[in-house]
Amino acid sequence: MLVILKRDNKEISREAAQLVASAVRKKPALTLGLATGGTMTGVYGHLAEFHKQGSLDFSQVVTFNLDEYLGLADRHPQSFHYFMHEHFFRHVNVDPRNIHIPDGTVRGNFVQYCAAYEDGIRKAGGIDLQILGIGRNGHIGFNEPTSSLGSRTRLKVLSQETIDDNAKFFAPGEESPRCAITMGIGTILEARKIILLATGAAKATAVAKSIEGPIASAVSASALQLHPEVTFIVDEQAASQLTQRDYYRRVLEMTALLTPERMS
Ligand code: F6R
After folding, report:
1. Residue with CA closest to ligand 1 atom 3
2. Out of 141, 169, 218, 219, which could bridge 182 as a Cys pair, Cβ 3.0 to 4.6 Å?
């Protein structure tokens, strides 16, 4: 596990975008796992800028988003479809046929729908690089606390904490979603490489538990300790409860010196 400590959201976004860009340049037909949320907007902004400058081509990239709210259509301004279109897809050249986001309007056989989503990932050769944010409660995707560490893509009931965090984005009187379709922790752990971004004091406890706490279903992101190629990129506030910050800095220096390929 690599822990990259940065000053603020701006630095985190730049670092993450550079890692994604370098992965796409190395493998133009990269299968990229994507996340939504406030932490991601800066990353997508940088990637869009690289594309505009002509230095990054997404024409062969295949994308799979982690999750979508159940009950929201693509054009709902709080849907993750809408978020992805606004912040990323309309600015870059990902082939629309290569974009996959769980359908929030699916009805009926959720098990079959989610199995087909997993099948799509498998047929694309598996996810090469997965980008993650983290919830205050340690969720990744919408794998809320007590999600099975082996879980697959499925319908998930949102925790009260997540519902409360999201309520501010919905119009007064509009009920915010209670459920989502999300890749499972098992699905995420199959990605070849994972980057998790965290910013702000509200994430400090979740970050510390994920990196330095025991692996537990109570903190979904702690399952990432099982993955051999995980990079956490964390700002000062989100890192404030980590006890081993000096060690992470030394590891990073030595890694850059001895195995620079691990850094890109
Ligand atoms: C969204 C997702 C979530 C968010 C997390 C952090 O696709 O997977 O796990 O990454 O809730 O959200 P922000 O960045 O808004 O704090």
Report:
1. 141
2. 141
